[in-house]
Amino acid sequence: MPGETQALIVIDLQNDFCPGGALAVAGANEIVPRINALLDAFPIRVLTQDWHPADHASFADNHADAEPYTVIEMPYGQQVLWPAHCVQGSHGAALHAGLLADRADMILRKGFRAGIDSYSAFYENDRATTTGLAGYLRERGATHLTFAGLATDFCVAWSALDAVRLGFGATVLTRACRAIDLEGSLADAMDKMRAAGVNLEP
After folding, report:
1. 192 is known as an active-site residue
2. Catalytic one among 16, 110, 117, 162?
3. For the chain, which terminus, N or C, has the lower number of CB atoms within 10 Å?
4. Which residues of 95-131 are buried (b: 16+ CB within 10 A; e: fewer)?
5. b/e per residue, 33-62, with b = 16+ CB within 10 A?
């Protein structure tokens, strides 16, 4: 069993990111049993949950004549426009029914500010507005974070990279993640994580 300084961070294992959801990630259902097994193996367990208002700026539907998966410039940088997903209180925003969510110590909701997206579990995409997760983990004594969930090339990668920047050790369990892989985004994310010192493990 991992030591008391180890934390498991399960990223966005929600209905809209699973088969049949608004922004489905191929194979997402396959990782649920492995993540459930991991929840019993770590002393600190956090789940994250995308939690968007219906008028969120990252939704293509909220921009005139915009197509999903196109990129626009926002005040904080480039933003992929997504199909509407994980709308607050919706079935799509709910955690996967098979996930043993009651094993978590904390569920962190992110992306609830209408004007800015939030891939990372630590920061909004302006890279300045914090979620409070780093402080919580430090108060609990965590020094090394293990990541699993959805999607490898977006929210998982951004979270792992921020963990390293914040001084935590970081591991991504690649077989407990699935990727969107939007125009090479998976290879790019893997390269960035390796370069930053994130451990990539099966």
Report:
1. no
2. 110
3. C
4. bbeebbbebbeeebbbbbbeebbbbbbbbbbeeeeeb
5. eebeebbeebbbbbbbbbbbeeebbbbbee
> Tokens 């498991």 label which residue?
8
* Cβ 180 vs Cβ 153: under 8 Å: yes
| Contact of 151 with 25, CB cutoff 8 Å | yes
12 catalytic residue (yes or no) = yes
Q: Is the peptide bond before 60 cis (omega within 30 degrees of 0)?
A: no
Collapsing DSSP to helix, strand or coil, 201 comes out as: strand
Q: In a structure prediction context, what are the per-residue pLDDT tens digits for the chain, which is 202 residues long?
A: 577 799 999 999 999 999 999 999 999 999 999 999 999 999 999 999 999 999 999 999 999 999 999 999 999 999 999 999 999 999 999 999 999 999 999 999 999 999 999 999 999 999 999 999 999 999 999 999 999 999 999 999 999 999 999 999 999 999 999 999 988 999 999 999 999 999 999 8
| Dihedral angle computed from the Cα positions of residues 36, 88, 142 and 197, in that order, rounded to the nearest 10 degrees | 90
Helix (H, G, I), strand (E, B) or coil at 163: helix
Q: What is the DSSP letter of 51?
A: -
